[in-house]
Amino acid sequence: MLGAMLMRTHYAFDPQRFLAAGAQAAKGYANFLESQLDDEESVVFVAEQDTRIIGYVYAGLEPMSWKELRGPAAFIHDVMIDEEAQGSGAGTALIDAAIAWARERGAARVMLWTAERNTKAQRLFERTGFRRTMIEMTREL
Fold first, then answer.
1. CA dist 75 → 85, 110, 119, 123, 124 (Å)
2. pLDDT tens track for 54-94
3. Maximum Cα–Cα distance across the chain
4. pTM over 0.85
5. Which residue among 6, 32, 44, 102 has its CA within the 20 to 30 Å range from the CA of 38?
6. Helices 119-127 + 90-104 axis angle, to 10
């Protein structure tokens, strides 16, 4: 459900750049995240409130990249909080958990990408110590 919400949110920001959440999006994204659970280089943490999952973070370790001109790094790929739970501190707690996980594995830095129009998330990321370093640009062909 939260994975499909992530897809719908991004698609609303820019339907040319992001995939639409089709009828099977929730199941498909849940299957994808489940496939990451056996990968020692990836982690998924969830936030619960009254036995209900209200958010998750998906992060992973990436090797050095000549293509991206960067050393090895941890990446926070997804952070999603249910709309009713936004502002509860769950997002900060999940980001902190992902950073702690990366630190325990020797990562020197944690990186993430955020949608240009996702100003709410950008404020959260800045409050948790992230700084802007790159801007993605897209041209449709």
1. 24, 5, 19, 18, 16
2. 999 999 999 999 999 999 999 999 999 999 999 999 999 99
3. 47
4. yes
5. 6
6. 50
Q: Is the dihedral of CA 19, 21, 25, 30 positive or negative?
A: positive
Nearest to 9 by CA among 83, 76, 62: 83
Indicate the DSSP class of residue 65. B
- Structural domains of the chain ordered from first start: 40-127 (3.40.630.30)
Structure tokens at 14: 């820019």
Q: Token pair of 70, please?
A: 């960067």
Q: How far apart are CA 116 and CA 29, in angstroms?
A: 22
Instruction: For residues 81 and 77, give the distance between their C-alpha atoms in angstroms, rounded to a whole number.
Output: 14
Q: Which amino acid is at 1?
A: M
Tokens of 41: 């280089």
Q: Are 98 and 59 in contact (CB under 8 A)?
A: yes
**In angstroms, what CA-CA distances link 70 with 34, 128, 134?**
28, 21, 12
Q: Write the pLDDT tens digit of every residue in 28-38.
A: 999 999 999 99
